[in-house]
C-alpha cells in the first residue's frame, strides 16, 4: 500500500495547473487507487479533461460526511523554485511541489486514511462521501459548481463536510493552536462602469468618466471598513485571549492583530468587510475623452453583512457609476459551537496533547460555498502538524511550497480517529 507521502508526491507530479490542460490524469490516478482498494469511484467530466472523482463508502449511520479536495493547482514558475514545482521530490522529510499544501497533501491524507481503513477492515462511523474536484482555483464552475447542480444525487444524505484551510498548527508558546474554519467571507466581485460625455481631450472637462471612475476607486481604496465582530470571530478572539493568557483589547484590534503575529492573522482580515480595486480599463487614444470607463473590484463580506457591504459600496461609488456582479457568492457559516466541531477538536487533541483547537472564519473562499448551496455545512479541517518554521498561508500559492511527510502522517491519524 502506498504511503501518504508517496501519494502526495505522485499527485504533485501531475501538472494540474489551472488554467491548463485539466485534471484528468490526476483524477484517473485517484480513481485507480480507490478502485484497487475495492471502493467504486464515479468519474465524470464537466468539460473535456475537467475531471472529478466521487466515491461513497458505507458507514454505520446514513447521515453522511463529505470530505472534498481539489486536484487543480495555481501556476508555478520553475525559475523561482529551489526544486521543480512538479517534481514531488522529498528532501529532508518535506514533499516539495505546487499543491503540497493547497491541497494535494490533503487529498493524499484522505486517500491514505480510507485505504488504511479498508486494509484493516474498519468501517466508518457514518457514510462517507469523498470528492476530488476540478477547478477550485478558478470559480469551481467545472468542479464543485458542476457537481452540486449536475450530479447532486452523489451527495444525498450528506449533512456536513470537511475540506481545506483549517486544522493546521500555528505555534503559540508551548502550545499549538489549530484553527478550524466555521465559515468564509462571501465574495462580491464587481464590474463598475462610469458613464460620461465623449469629447476632445484638449477641451475643458465636462463629464469625464475616467475622472469619475478614479475618484470612486480612490474612495473605495481609502475607505476604512468598520470592525464587525461576528459571533465566530468574537469566539476566536476570546479563545486566543485564554490560550495566550493575555487579554486581547477589543478597542484596538488592529494593533492586537499585529502584536499576535501569526495568531493575529487568524482574525486580522476577518473582522471587517473589504474591497480592493483590481482592474482598470478605459480609453483608446490620448486626446479622446471616452464615453465610459470600467473597473473591477474584489469585495468580500462577513457572514450576515452582505446588505451593509453593498450599501457602503454604493455610497462610495456615487450616482454616476453602475455596478454589476461578476460573481456574487454567499458567506457560508457552519454551526459553532456544535457537537461536530467538538468531534473535530477531540480528534486533534487525541493525537497532539498540546493542540488548542479554535474556531475561525476564512478571509477568502473555497468549494465549501458550492456545497453550502445544497445545504451541506462546511468546516475547514485538513489536519496538519507543521514545524514552527513553516508558514502555512505563506506557502499557499507561494514558491517552494512544501509539506512535511510527518505532518501528513499526523493528519492521516487524526482523520482516521475522526472517521472510525
Ligand atoms: Zn485550495
UniProtKB/TrEMBL annotation:
<comment type="similarity">
    <text>Belongs to the peptidase M20A family.</text>
</comment>
<dbReference type="GO" id="GO:0016787">
    <property type="term" value="F:hydrolase activity"/>
</dbReference>
<dbReference type="InterPro" id="IPR036264">
    <property type="entry name" value="Bact_exopeptidase_dim_dom"/>
</dbReference>
<keyword id="KW-0862">Zinc</keyword>
<dbReference type="InterPro" id="IPR050072">
    <property type="entry name" value="Peptidase_M20A"/>
</dbReference>
<dbReference type="InterPro" id="IPR002933">
    <property type="entry name" value="Peptidase_M20"/>
</dbReference>
<protein>
    <submittedName>
        <fullName>Acetylornithine deacetylase/succinyl-diaminopimelate desuccinylase-like protein</fullName>
    </submittedName>
</protein>
<keyword id="KW-0479">Metal-binding</keyword>
<dbReference type="Pfam" id="PF07687">
    <property type="entry name" value="M20_dimer"/>
</dbReference>
<feature type="domain" description="Peptidase M20 dimerisation">
    <location>
        <begin position="182"/>
        <end position="315"/>
    </location>
</feature>
<dbReference type="InterPro" id="IPR001261">
    <property type="entry name" value="ArgE/DapE_CS"/>
</dbReference>
<dbReference type="Pfam" id="PF01546">
    <property type="entry name" value="Peptidase_M20"/>
</dbReference>
<keyword id="KW-0378">Hydrolase</keyword>
<dbReference type="GO" id="GO:0046872">
    <property type="term" value="F:metal ion binding"/>
</dbReference>
<dbReference type="InterPro" id="IPR011650">
    <property type="entry name" value="Peptidase_M20_dimer"/>
</dbReference>
Amino acid at each position: 500500500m502506498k504511503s501518504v507521502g508517496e501519494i502526495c508526491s505522485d499527485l504533485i507530479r501531475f501538472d494540474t495547473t489551472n488554467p491548463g490542460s485539466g485534471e484528468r490524469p490526476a483524477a484517473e490516478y485517484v480513481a485507480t487507487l480507490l478502485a484497487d482498494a475495492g471502493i467504486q469511484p464515479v468519474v465524470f467530466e464537466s468539460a473535456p479533461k475537467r475531471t472529478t472523482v466521487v466515491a461513497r463508502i458505507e458507514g454505520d449511520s446514513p447521515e453522511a460526511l463529505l470530505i472534498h479536495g481539489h486536484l487543480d493547482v495555481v501556476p508555478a514558475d520553475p525559475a523561482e523554485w529551489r526544486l521543480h514545482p512538479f517534481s514531488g521530490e522529498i528532501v529532508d522529510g518535506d514533499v516539495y511541489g505546487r499543491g503540497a499544501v493547497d491541497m494535494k497533501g490533503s487529498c493524499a491524507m484522505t486517500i491514505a486514511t480510507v485505504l488504511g481503513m479498508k486494509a484493516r477492515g474498519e468501517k466508518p462511523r457514518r457514510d462517507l462521501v469523498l470528492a476530488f474536484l476540478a477547478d477550485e482555483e478558478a470559480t469551481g464552475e467545472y468542479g464543485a459548481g458542476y457537481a452540486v447542480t449536475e450530479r447532486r444525487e452523489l451527495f444525498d444524505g450528506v449533512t456536513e463536510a470537511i475540506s481545506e484551510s483549517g486544522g493546521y498548527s500555528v505555534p503559540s508558546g508551548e502550545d499549538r493552536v489549530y484553527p478550524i474554519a466555521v465559515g468564509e467571507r462571501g465574495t462580491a466581485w464587481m464590474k463598475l462602469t462610469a458613464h460620461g460625455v465623449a469629447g476632445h481631450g484638449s477641451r475643458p472637462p465636462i463629464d469625464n468618466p475616467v475622472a469619475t471612475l478614479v475618484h470612486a476607486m480612490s474612495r473605495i481604496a481609502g475607505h476604512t471598513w468598520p470592525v464587525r465582530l461576528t459571533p465566530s470571530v468574537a469566539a476566536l478572539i476570546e479563545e486566543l485571549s485564554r490560550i495566550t493568557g493575555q487579554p486581547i483589547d477589543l478597542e484596538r484590534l488592529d494593533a492586537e492583530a499585529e502584536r499576535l503575529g501569526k495568531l493575529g492573522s487568524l482574525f486580522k482580515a476577518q473582522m471587517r468587510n473589504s474591497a480592493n480595486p483590481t482592474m482598470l480599463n478605459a480609453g483608446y487614444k490620448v486626446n479622446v475623452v471616452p464615453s465610459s470607463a470600467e473597473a473591477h473590484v474584489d469585495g468580500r463580506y462577513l457572514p450576515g453583512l452582505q446588505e451593509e457591504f453593498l450599501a457602503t459600496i454604493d455610497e462610495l461609488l456615487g450616482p454616476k457609476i453602475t455596478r454589476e456582479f461578476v460573481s456574487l457568492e454567499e458567506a457560508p457559516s457552519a454551526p459553532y459551537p456544535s457537537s461536530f466541531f467538538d468531534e473535530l477538536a477531540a480528534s486533534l487533541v487525541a493525537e497532539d496533547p498540546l493542540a488548542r483547537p479554535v474556531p475561525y472564519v476564512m478571509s477568502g473562499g473555497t468549494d465549501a460555498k458550492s456545497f453550502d448551496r445544497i445545504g451541506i455545512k462546511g468546516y475547514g479541517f485538513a489536519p496538519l502538524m507543521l514545524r514552527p518554521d513553516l508558514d502555512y498561508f505563506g506557502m499557499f500559492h507561494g514558491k517552494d511550497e512544501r509539506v512535511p511527510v510527518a505532518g501528513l502522517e499526523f493528519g492521516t491519524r487524526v482523520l482516521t480517529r475522526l472517521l472510525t
